[in-house]
User: Fold this.
Amino acid sequence: MVYFENVEKRYPDGTLAVDGLNLEVESGEFVVLIGPSGCGKTTSLKMINRLEECTGGKIYVNGKDIMTLNPVKLRRQIGYVIQERGLMPHHTVAENIATVPLLLGWPKKKIDARVDELLDMAGLPKEKYKYRLPAQMSGGQQQRIGVLRALASDPEVVLMDEPFGALDPISRDNLQNELLTIHKKLKKTIIFVTHDISEALKLADRIVLMRRGKIEQIGTPDELINNPATKFVEEFIGSDQLSQISGDASVTALLEDVIMEVNLNAAIEDVLEDMQDRDVKSAQVTDAKRRWHGSIYLSTLKKAKREGKQLVKETLSVNRKLYVEDGNLKDAAEMLVDMEAPIPIINSANELQGIVTEKGMAKYTINKLIK
Amino acid sequence: MNNPGFIEAFIDYVSKNYMRILTATGEHIYISLIALAITLVTCIPLGIYLTRNEKIAPYVISIANVFQTIPSLALLGFLIFVFGIGNDNAICALVMYAMLPVLQNTYTGIKNVDKATVQAAKGMGMTNFQILMKVQIPLALPVIISGVRVASVWIIGTAALAAAIGGGGLGRLIFSGLSLIRDEIIFAGALPATALALLTDMVLKKFQKYTTPEERAKRIAKKMKVNFNH
Assistant:
C-alpha cells in the first residue's frame, strides 16, 4: 500500500534527516514509526503526503510513484491527523469533519449523512456536538474529531503524527482503544508516529524503530521485545529490565489522585452529564467524611437511569477494590486485565486513598523497563 | 463657545443652510468612501502579498509608517505639485494616511493564524488559494476589520482638511466658519463629521464581532435550531 524505496531526505543546509529508508507497509496494516527526536520519523511520514519532498529514492502509494501525482490530489486521498490545534478553529465540528469531502465536491446530502455516520461511530451524540466549535470541547474530544475528519472521505491510508501526544493519560488511553477498534473495523492502512514506546507497543502491528534517519529494526512488538536486533533497540525497549518488576510490591507505588469523586447522594442524571463532559468512564463514590462506598461506571449508570433509579447510591459496585495495607501489584494487574477502569485504593477504615490506573501501571512498568 | 446666542445662531444657520450642510456631508462621505475603497483594494492584497514575501515586509510597512508621520497639511500642500488642487489630491493624501493600519493588520492578522492550522489545511489537500480563502482570511478577518475601523475614522476626520486645498466636504463649513469667526458654522461642519466617524466606527465594530468564529457558530446553531451553549 505504501512503499519506500531508498528514500532520502536532505535539507538545504546539508543535514540528512532520512537516509536510505526501505519499508513496505501492507494494506490494512497498523505501522508505528518510533524513535528518539530527530530520528526522521515525522519527516518520513510527511514525505508520504508530500508535506515534505523526498530528495532521493521513490515512494509509492497504491502502486503509484507519488512524485508523478499532483500533491493536492494526493493529500485528498490520504487521511491526516496531527498532534493538536489541527482542527479549523472557526469551523464547527460538522464542517471540520466535512473538510475533505467538501474539497472533493461531494453533494451536500451525502456529506451530511457521512458526518452523522462518523459521529455515531465515535459515540458522540450529533445533536450535541455537530455545531460546536473546537474551542468548546476537551482536548480528547477535539482529537476524536481530528480522527473522524481523516476518515471522512474513506481514504485507504491514514497518516497520524503524534495524534495523542498532548492529551492527558486517561483521554489518551481511551482514544488509543477507540483507534484500535476503528482499525479493526475499517481495516485502514495506518502509519502512526509517536515517541512513546508504550503507545507503540499497544497499537502497532509492526513497529519501525528509527535512529538518525535509518531503520534500526522493523518487527512486531513481540519481536522487538524478545529479539532486539541491536543494543540500541534493547535499550529503547528496555527488555532486559522486564524480569526486575516484582508483583509483590505494594500498590502504594502506583497510587494516583482520584480523577472523579462523587457524593453518595448525587443524582444519577447530573453525574452522567458531568462524566460525559469530562470524558471519564468511572468515578468513586464517597460520603462527607471521604469514606469510600463504591465505584460507579458510565455503563452501569446509564443502565440504572433507564431502570428509573435516581441516586448514585442505588447503583454502586463495591467488590472491585484494594486495601492500601496489603494490596500488591499483581492483584492490581489482574484486576486491570479483567477491566481497565481505575481501581479504588482504600484503607482499613474504608477511607479513599487514591486510585490505580492502567496507565499508571504501564508507566511504572515502562520506567522500570527503560531505567 | 462663549457667545451667548450660540444655540439660537446655530439653529438659525442650520435652518437656512441645511441644503448646504447636506451637500457638504454628501461630498464628505463621497471623498471618504473613495479613499477608504482605494485603501482596502490596495492594502489588503498588499498585506497578503507581504505574508508570502516576508523579506520585503518590514520595508513596505516602514514606508507606510513614514507616510503616517508627515503632518497632514504639509502632505496636502506637497501633493498640490502632483495632482493640483481639488478632491483627487485630498483622496490621495487620505489613502496615504490610512494605509498603515490596514496593511499592518492584514499582515499580522494573517501571519498570526496558527501554523498548525495552516499545516493541517495543507495536509487535508487544500490549495494555497483555498488555505488563504477558507482558513487564513476568515481567521484574520476580525483583526483586519479592526485596522479598517482605525483607518476609516482617520479618513473621515482628516477629510475635513480637503477643503484647505480646494476640495469639498464638511471642511468647507469649518474653514469658512474659522475665517468668519462664526462658531455656529464651524459647529455645523464639525458635528456631522464627528457623527459620521462615530457611526462608521459603530457599524464596523458590529461587523467585526459578526465575523468572529463564535458569532458565526451561533448563527449556524440558530439556523439548525440547536442550543449553542450546551
Chain A has 15 helices and 16 strands.
